Each structure stands twice: as structure tokens, then as C-alpha cells.
Amino acid sequence: MNIIVCLKQVPDTADIKLDGVTKRLVREGVKSMINPFDMYAIEEALRLKEKLGGKVTALTMGPPQAETSLREAIALGCDEAILVSDSAFAGADTLATSYTLSCAIKKIKDYDLIFCGKQTLDGDTAQVGPGIAGHLDIPQIINVRKIQDIKEVQVTAQRMTEYGYDVIEAQLPCLLTVVKDINVPRLPSLKGKMKAKSASVSVWKVVDIQADEASIGAKGSATEVLKIATPPARPQGKIFEGEGAVDQLVETLKGLMK
Amino acid sequence: MLDYLLTEEQIMIRDLARQITDEKIRPVAAEYDRSEKFPWDIMKIIAQSDLFGVYIDQKYGGMGGGIFELCLVTEEFSKGCAGIAICYSATALGTYPIILAGNEEQKMKYLPAIAKGEKLAAFGLTEPAAGSDASALQTTAEKKGDHYVLNGTKHFITNGGDADIYTVIAMTDKSRGARGASLFVVEKGTPGFTFGKKEDKMGIRASSTSELIFNDCKIPAGNLLGREGMGFISAMRTFDMSRPGIGAQAVGIAQGALDEALKFSKQRKQFDKPISSFQGIQWMLADMATETEAARALVYASAREVNAGVKDVGMHSAMAKMYASDVAMKVTTNAVQICGGYGYMKEYPVEKYMRDAKITQIYEGTNQIQRNIIGMGLIRESSK
Asked: Given CB atoms, is B216 within the 8 Å cutoff of chain A?
């Protein structure tokens, strides 16, 4: 089973800042980490590899410093790492990003499964995973909370929904995005960290993945950001207690509906 | 913290131990303190991280470091929970006699499983009547053909009942006193080897402390470590080398308590100001930080001396253990003082550091015994 895990380097949650002028996240000088949902994707890929054999390739698109996240993935047990990095990719939205990653995956060629986190912590769109499957024209199962069964040509997985879960079968190769209920990610091992230090990370540019220049970076992006803002802090809730609580609640709700 | 000029590999080891502490140990420390259950889930995580092998030769599946690397890990774990940390470092204490006195066959048999964290080890020296006076041992090992037969009781044995591999000291010739003691490896499950009561302790409650009972326990003659009569010397050599580990545990406890006290002092407001703005509190924190750093510097220097293979490390390692544990007791007591009523409550982590600190002044040689070692060392050195 050859598995590709797509991951993204994101700013540490404790450290997120927005740039009002560029309308983007400030990424310079901010501590970074692997997107937490992608950690579950890595873990699931490693568990499948340990059970079925094969290899796990970690893939990311990002600036040169995203290499540190790929080394972390190797420390956890991924076998290979590919960084898709070129100044031409800058300013990509989810459409251009998923196209770019799909080009890289076409170059990798030999794969049975692609794992992504459900969404990233910074963009929060949950679009890149499904976008990749779209560009590759392969099946996808999103929000996977459990892989029930996997055979040479088919995977059966539980897709989490608001009301419970659906059981979905899909042909391989297939793309899965995972939610945090799927597993508990491991910590790196010392031997893994040492391996990661000396491991080679391939860097692929536009020409390497034969991407159409009009479909990448800012040029290939369809999104226009009109405004960004930090969501206002949620106001504190009100608790009605004791006798007359129901009446008070009804009155308050009436007042809100006016 | 001072820059101790660690190598890249040592930084990796420290950071990994720190990550395990922050993500896995801290969240469960209070629960294990309450339940006194053995932290098997954490032991498994440590095993997967390769940290059980940091001090074991690469030839036996370890990472090829020494006591210093063991200290770096123990210190980090102890910041989160000294009880969990001692389950880890007591395994090293049980393993060192095999490293120091074992033959190639014994090393090949036991060290790989220990390095992988598949098996924990324990060291069995203390007996009801033999604590500081380690030469007053009652447990005997009688040679019968190609076996030894062990009889007697060890008590207060860390990891007792949970470890698989025990290095045990017993008298092979009572008439020769300390020179009649020998070291053996006894595996859990050997007929005649059982465990007595598990102690209910003041601190380090995540770790197990139990009696080892030998009742006509027959072990192969090949389980003798080194030669007959060398047991006491091997045990003392083990302690000379392992003492910085207790110092590191103490430094971790002190640092953990200091961090909590500092955090609390910045949040706690009295007289309309955070209490950290009061000079009285600042001076306490300053002393705590300075003494913790001094203890760390001494522990690291002594551990590095052991790593470097310096011949006589006993006096310095005694200084490191004694000083660091005395500092830990003082710093944790003052951390509780700074946190006031909150510090005294079990809902907050500070009182646990104080309870955990006390044992570091007692085990692996009381601090009074350490002062004996230092005093004797001074006299010996000055008469050279």
C-alpha cells in the first residue's frame, strides 16, 4: 500500500496574527507547526503501512521553511518527503493549491491512498483535500472517523456526519480526509528524529511537476478576499435559575425576536 | 537557564523528553498521584520514543549515551511527575550492574529488551535491617551445583512487582561481611520469587515500591554478575555513577515547582497588584531560581564526569545528589509558601512537588550518607 499524506505547515495556534493590508495571515517570524488535523492523517497512514507494508510519502506545498514540517513527518515514520516550492506558487488559494498538489501527485504516480486532514487551522476551508481528488478525478471520502476495511482495490470508511456516520465504500486510489476521532497521533521517536535530521527532502518546482502556469499561484486563484477580521469574542451566555426561570427565558427570547 | 553547550543529539533527547512531559505526563500526573496505579501507558509512550535506551550501548540496541543523557531525560520527566520519572530512572539503576559487571552473554540477554522498553528493571539492595548500613544484609545465596538458591526479603524496592528484571544483592559468604556479597539477576516469574506488600507513600506515588521475597528461589549459576564476593563493590560503583540521576530528578522537581510559583505570583493579585511585584516575593523567587540553577550545574558537571569515564566519581556524584535534593526540598517548600492556601491544596500541583522532593533526600543513600562519602573523599584526597 503506497500512501501519500498531504500536510500543511501552519502558524502555532497561540500565535496567529492577521495582516490588514495584504488580507492574509502573518506567517513571517511566527512559530509554526504541522496542521493538527494533518497529524491524524499522518498517524492513520503510518498505521496502515505498519499493518499492510508499503511506504508513506509526505507532501506539502509551501515556502522553503515548510521543510521543517516535512522533517517532523519523517521523524514520525514517513519514508519520503516532497516539498513543492516555487515563488510562482505564491498567493495560491485552495483552487490553485489543490491543482498544484494534484500535479505533484501525478508525478509521484504510484499511490493507492491519499490522506489529508479535514481542514487546516489557518485557512479553515476544508477545500484542498476534495479539490485534489477533483483534479485527479479519483473518489474521495471526507471527514473519515474510521477505516472499517481496506482491500487491494477498495476501502470502506465511516464518514462522520452531524447525525452520526455514513458507511462509504470507494475504489482505490481514493482520497480520504480525516477527523480527530480517527486515532491518537504518536510522538516522534529519537531514532526517527535522527533519521529526519539527515534525510533528504526533494524540492519540486513548477517545471518539475509540469503545472500549467495560468493555474497556479495568485494567477490561478479564483478567490478574492474582500475583508478579513478576527471574529468578535462570543458574549457570555445568561443562565436562568430557580423558580420563574422558564418565564424569564421566554420573556428574554421574545425581547430578542423583536 | 544557562547554556550548557549540549550537543545536537542531547538537545534532541531533551526536547523529546520535554514534549512527552508536556503532552503526556503533565495531564495525568495528579490522577496517578491519587490512584497510585503504575503508569504503564506512559511507560509505553517512553518505550516508543527510544528514550529507555539513551544510556545503553548501540551494540545492545541503545542510543549510545551515558548517565548525562539519562539525567537530561529524568530532569524533564520530573518537571511533570517525579513518580513517573523514577519508574524510568529506577530501570536504569537496575540495569547499571549488568552494564558494569555483566559478561557479554548477560548483556546480550538483558540489555536489548531494556533499551527497547519492553522490560523494566529494578535494583534490590535494601532490606528491613540493611538501609544505610548496606553491609548488614541478611538475604543469602547458596550455591548448589549449577544453581544458586536465594532466601530472604528485600524491601522498599522501586519498580518492585512491575519490573521484569531484578538485580539483587545477596550474601554468598556471610563470614566475610561486605566482601561476601554477590550480585545476581533474578527474573520475574522465577519459582520461589514473589512480591510482598506495595507501600503507600507520601510522594512519588505513581511509582511502585514493594517487597521482594525469596523463598528457596533457584536461579542458574550463570545469573551471577561478575565474581562471587564482588557484589558490594559493584553496588557501590553503580551508586557512584547513578547518583547524578537522583540529582537530575531533584532539579526537575525544583524547576517544576519554581515554574508554578512564578506563574502563580504573576496571576495572584493582593493589595491591587500581582504578588510578583512585591520585593519579598521576588527575593524568594530569585533565591529559588539561583539555587536550582546551581544544582543543575553541579549535577550536569558530575554526570559529564561519569560519561567521560573519570576513575573516581563518587565524591562529586554524592555532592550532586545531596545538594540538588536539599535544594529541591527548599525550593518546593517555598513554592508552596508563595502560592499560600492554594499551594497547600491538592487541586493545585505545587504541594505534590513538595511531597515528591522529600524522597530525593532519602533514597539512593540518605544525604547524611552522602556527606559521609564527601567527608571521606576529602580526607583521602588530602592525604595523597
From this structure: no
- Taking 80 as the threshold, does the pLDDT of residue B363 lie above it? yes
- Helix, strand and coil in chain A, % to nearest 5: 35, 25, 40
**Partner A contacted by B23 (CB < 8 A):** yes
Which residues of chain A have a CB within 8 Å of the CB of B63? 190-191
Long-range contacts from A11-14, C-beta under 8 angstroms, 24+ separation: A11/A122, A13/A121
**Chain A CB contacts of B10 below 8 Å:** none
Q: DSSP code of B234? A: H
Total of domains in chain B: 3
Domain termination residue (choose one: B210, B231, B252): B231
Range with lowest mean pLDDT among A8-12, A81-85, B253-257, B277-281: A8-12
Q: Is the pLDDT of residue B300 over 90?
A: yes
CATH of the domain at B370: 1.20.140.10
Are B88 and B147 contained in the same domain?
no
Separation between Cα atoms, residue B13 and residue A189, nearest integer Å: 9
Q: How close does chain B come to A88, measured CA to CA in Å?
A: 35
The domain that holds B61 is classified in CATH as 1.10.540.10
CA B15 to chain centre: 20
* Mean pLDDT value of segment B60-89: 97
Using CB atoms and an 8 Å cut-off, which of residues 170-209 of chain A contact chain B? 186-191, 193-194, 197
**Average pLDDT of the segment spanning B369-384:** 95
Q: What residues have CB less than 8 Å from B60, skipping those under 6 apart?
A: B107, B108, B111, B112, B115
Residues contacting A184, CB < 8 A, separation 6+: A43
**Domain range holding B133?**
122-231
Q: Are residues B27 and B47 in the same domain?
A: yes
Please give, rounded to a whole number of angstroms, the shortest distance from the CA of B5 to a CA of chain A: 19
Task: Give the model's confidence band at A15: pLDDT under 50 very low, under 70 low, under 90 confident, else very high.
Answer: low
The answer to whether A241 and A227 are in contact (CB under 8 A) is no
Task: Please judge whether A190 and B50 are an interchain contact, meaning their C-beta atoms are less than 8 angstroms apart.
Answer: yes
Q: Are residues B114 and B159 in the same domain?
A: no
Asked if residue B49 lies in contact with residue B12, where contact means CB atoms within 8 angstroms, the answer is: no
- Bridge partners, B127 (sequence order): B130
Whether residue A241 is contained in a domain is answered as no
Q: Is residue B2 part of a domain?
A: no
Report pLDDT for B37: 96
Question: Looking at B93, B120, B147, which one is the last position of a domain?
Answer: B120
CB contact under 8 A, B12 and A190: yes
Domain-embedded: residue B3: no
Backbone angles phi, psi at B224, to 5 degrees: -70, 130
Residue B49: inside a domain: yes
pLDDT at residue B232 is higher than 90: yes
Residue A257 lies in a domain: no
pLDDT of the residue at A27 = 67
Show which residues of B are catalytic: 364
Whether B150 and B267 share a structural domain: no
Q: Tell me the ipTM for this assembly.
A: 0.85
State the pLDDT confidence band at B90, using cuts at 50, 70 and 90: very high
A196 to chain B nearest CA, in Å? Answer: 11
Residue B142 resides in a domain:
yes
Mind listing the pLDDT tens digit for each residue in A102-149? 999 999 999 999 999 999 887 788 999 999 999 999 999 999 999 999
pLDDT over 80 at A28, yes or no: no
* pTM attached to this predicted model: 0.88
Instruction: Looking at the structure, tell me whether residues B359 and B303 fall in a common domain.
Output: yes
Report the CATH number at residue A202. Answer: 3.40.50.620
